[in-house]
Amino acid sequence: MTREAFVKMLMASVTTESSQPQEEREKWLNSDWKVEEQRRVFVDGASVASAYKPELYYSSSLGIIVGDESKQFRPQASLTRKEAAAIIERVLNERVKSHPISGIGYYAIQSFGNVDQMSKLQDVKFGWSQLAYSGNGKASLDLKSAPYAIPDGWEAAMDKAKSYNVGHKELMVYADNRDSRLSSFLADQPAQTAFIQSIQNLLVHNNSYGFTGISIDFEGLLKESEQVGFTSFLRDLSESTKGYSLSVAVPPTDWYKGYDMKQVGLIADQVILMAYDYTHKDSNLPSAPLPLVNAAVQSALTVIPKEKLVLGISKQANQWITRPNGETVLENPAIQLVEERAGKPGSKLQFMLPYFLQHITFQDARGNHEIWYEDAKSIEQKIWLAKYYGLQGVSLWHMGNFNASDWEMVKNNTSQR
Mutual orientation of helices 376-388 and 81-97 as an angle, nearest 10°? Predict the structure, then answer.
């Protein structure tokens, strides 16, 4: 295929999908392209067939076609694979950048320092509660036990959310399956009834905090047999809290089989895909390599509408230390310490493909160190992925871990009020 024919074919797709009004697109293709022709002079522009000129100069105005170093377009030349890849990437970026996407923050643990960043978010989930389950039909909403507890001075955070017109202000409820406690809870109907009643009391009868909904984060369900219990619990919770939003966080189902993704998608107003924690000690696989994140999104979209799906992003680090005796240990250092380490002498810093993650190596008395971690550049790639698939949004766990550069990138890549 010639270069000019390829551009015409691609730009037909771009103009069809563009958010630009049809009248403006037609005006550009009928006449306005001539202004671009005068502004961006290709040395061999006269050899471009007239039928191809509108699309060529429209694409050049978007930065999709830039010509070579000698300002030639070479219209009749055969397109190489390398050239095709470069042009297709620019077309995809043009399509993706205009897709609106919500930024959703998890306000939890140590997030008050970033409370004003709520101005860049559409929704906020407050990580201030967890499941309290003691067995024998007894369960309740626990708002007092660290690390997920309503903090002193909570009013300041909620006032900020209101002042920034945050849409949904949901209370996150956390639970994990250590000692199979969560599995037991999902098999204990009286306990579920008591727990749902405590949520209903908070949201419906005495909502002094101003929450507009609930966000369920129940982690660690491994068995397919647990799907029925979890689905039934969500359905009962949804019925009991009508008028309030319900979001549900789910892991990729590669290992965690206790989540019926299709049913979760039907019940919840929003599904947060926690596409991370792939960390594997023996292979040095980090938390969220982009190819695995991509596969998780593709799998989820087979059963969950894209309008409901949110890509969960966790800003974290994984560190492998090979000690002098040859033993390798895996640690999960605080992201702030990792970012400090990146700037120290002796640290080799690279942005690595195909993971699309930052990578640090260095040596000290403890041994050889290898660190994979998320930063603004890697998180931006995940936001790009969410926009490419047309997802509802991205969620950020947790707000306290994001620095000024991260927030500026979030502002530039998500919808702003």
Answer: 80
Q: Are 316 and 406 in contact (CB under 8 A)?
A: no
Contacts 24+ apart (CB under 8 A), 222-228: 222/177, 222/255, 222/256, 222/257, 222/258, 223/183, 223/257, 223/258, 224/257, 224/258, 225/258, 226/183, 226/186, 226/257, 226/258, 227/257, 227/258, 227/259, 227/260, 227/263, 228/260
Residue type for position 390: G
State mean pLDDT over 380-391.
97
Q: How far apart are CA 229 and CA 257, in angstroms?
A: 13
Rounded CA gap, 393 and 316, in Å?
20
pLDDT tens track for 75-100: 899 989 998 899 888 888 888 887 89
Is 18's pLDDT higher than 70? no
Say if residues 28 and 58 touch (Cβ distance below 8 Å).
yes
173, containing H or E segment: strand 169-176
Distance CA 411, CA 416 (A): 7
- With beta carbons less than 8 A apart as the criterion, state whether 250 and 272 touch: yes
Tokens of 267: 């019940």
Read off the pLDDT of residues 150-180 as tens digits, 9 standing for 90 and up: 999 999 999 999 999 999 999 999 999 999 9
What span, in angstroms and rounded, lies between the C-alpha atoms of 340 and 206?
44
Nearest to 172 by CA among 125, 233, 121: 125
CA distances from residue 148 to 130, 195, 221, 273, 291 in whole angstroms, order as listed? 6, 17, 20, 20, 32
Extended strands (E) in 234-308: 245-250, 270-274
Does the structure show a pLDDT above 70 at 38? yes
Tokens read off for 288: 């969220």
The one-letter amino acid at 305? P
Distance CA 126, CA 108 (A): 6
pTM of this prediction? 0.90
Per-residue DSSP letters for 97-141?
HTS--EEEEEE-SS-GGGGGGGGG-SEEEEEEEEEEEEETTEEEE
User: Is the CB of residue 382 less than 8 Å from the CB of residue 311?
Assistant: yes
Q: Please spell the DSSP secondary structure of 25-46, one letter per residue.
A: HHHIIIIIHHHHHHHS--TTGG
Cα 178 to the chain's mean position, in Å?
26
What residue has token string 């980090």?
A: 286
List the structure tokens of 186: 């999902």
